[in-house]
Design goal:
Chain lengths: ~160, ~290
């Protein structure tokens, strides 16, 4: 079966790659673009490890076919901050020592970043709801909550 | 994932033409949150998949001359959750959208996909039944309208022919003194599937119930209305006692099974509890 040419924007750069019709966006990011930050946990949209931003909104990239991203803007953890210029959430995750095994962290950060864009000052309840789609099998939720709460303060502080 | 050919139409017409040409081994892809897991685990093995994401018309929400609302079948659960018009006039539908999956899933999952997947537990079905919504379906012979109440024909079965596409849901105007609510019971608050779901909609006139709608999910092969309970409310002043009687009457249509999510007895209990709670909230909202 013929491959398709996928044109989209990934981490602010225009990208054109050949993909199979059955490739998911996660497959295309990891296997064809070398962006291995997003992880495949369950492959069925239950764990959140593959979370990326799609036109600014968090999605499970394992549930979208790569070609459904044609013409859209995708952001992965690789495009959230840069070494030396981390996103406030990344700074807070480092400071609080949030990652344990680390597998869920890219997805958690992308979910939290989307939450803070929509709601810069979330309550604890809203943070819990915002990352409800991300499973951490090390069960490191307490530190996540602390780090996101602190980053929310930092983010809002910088804006005002 | 199993291999398939992928087709990328850009309009409803092109999609319907493509469907007509392709034959039975074809599946329509909207948000993919139900379809992709079924493709990955081998439950479905289509030769071709038609992606609907290029058809802009399917993502539109349009007020029809101030009368009612037309919602495109590919509008996402997250959009229904946040849309001001849907929240303002059809709150039960916004509430059901907010309960689907996680935010990552809600940004993909679509209204039409939830209906066409036709799970007995589909969260967005009961509000549509309670709102007297109609499904607008397009096929090679043109357009037809089907009440959502008769859209489902069995577990994972609908009235859609293989060459037809669900394009829009048409919601009639609710009027000023109308209120609704959707509740479901799940062991886990997020990312779970309804053990039972109930939507209620009450419309008042001069302090009396002019119209009542109660719709149940996950208690029968298809989502269905509790018409006996509705009739008990209509024409009456709605009191807590009458709501309790309507909740008992709602059980008449429930034919729940026992499965890993809950026993039939527990489901019958939930029908009464959730009917009572949704009617109470619907009444408060209609009176506000």
């Amino acid at each position: 079966m013929a491959k398709h040419a996928l044109s989209c924007t990934v981490n602010d750069e225009p990208v054109e790659v050949l993909v199979q019709p059955w490739d998911t966006l996660l497959d295309a990011l990891r296997e064809r673009m070398g962006l291995t930050g997003p992880k495949e946990g369950c492959g069925t949209g239950d764990c959140g490890a593959c979370t990326v931003h799609f036109d600014g909104k968090p999605i499970a990239s394992c549930l979208l076919l790569a070609m459904q991203a044609r013409g859209h803007e995708v952001r992965t953890i690789e495009g959230l901050g840069k070494p030396g210029a981390l996103h406030p959430l990344q700074e807070a995750f480092v400071k609080h020592g949030v990652p344990q095994c680390g597998f869920c962290i890219p997805g958690v950060l992308m979910a939290a970043a989307a939450l803070l864009t929509e709601n810069p000052r979330p309550t604890e309840e809203e943070i819990r709801y915002g990352i409800a789609g991300n499973l951490c099998r090390c069960t490191g939720y307490t530190k996540m909550l602390a780090a996101i709460t602190e980053a929310a303060g930092a983010t809002a502080g910088r804006r005002s | 994932m199993r291999r398939f050919e992928l087709l990328l139409p850009q309009s409803v017409d092109e999609c319907v033409r493509t469907l007509a040409q392709q034959g039975p081994e074809t599946k329509l892809l909207a948000g993919g949150t139900d379809l992709l897991p079924q493709l990955k685990n081998g439950l479905l093995k289509p030769a071709r998949v038609i992606d609907l994401s290029g058809v802009a018309q399917l993502r539109a929400i349009e007020s029809a001359n101030g009368q009612g609302l037309r919602i495109g079948s590919a509008v996402t659960a997250r959009t229904l959750e946040l849309d001001r018009t849907v929240q303002g006039r059809y709150l039960s539908l916004a509430e059901s959208g907010a309960l689907v999956g996680s935010v990552q899933v809600r940004n993909l999952a679509t209204l039409g996909g939830n209906l066409c997947n036709a799970a007995p537990s589909a969260d967005m079905a009961p509000p549509l039944l309670a709102l007297d919504a109609e499904a607008i379906i397009v096929g090679p012979k043109g357009e037809r309208r089907v009440p959502v109440a008769t859209f489902f024909t069995g577990v994972r079965k609908t009235v859609l022919a293989p060459d037809e596409l669900l394009v829009e849901l048409a919601l009639p105007a609710t009027g000023p003194n109308s209120g609704g609510n959707y509740l479901r019971h799940t062991p886990r608050r997020e990312l779970d599937i309804a053990v039972v779901g109930v939507a209620s909609q009450l419309t008042l006139a001069n302090g009396v119930c002019a119209k009542a709608r109660i719709a149940l999910a996950a208690v029968a092969p298809v989502p269905l209305r509790a018409t006996g309970a509705e009739r008990a409310l209509e024409g009456q002043r709605v009191t807590p006692e009458l709501i309790a009687r309507a909740a008992d009457l709602a059980l008449e249509v429930a034919r729940p099974i026992s499965d890993q999510r809950g026993s039939a007895d527990f489901r019958r209990h939930l029908v009464r509890v959730l009917t009572r709670r949704t009617l109470t909230t619907a009444l408060a909202r209609a009176s506000a």
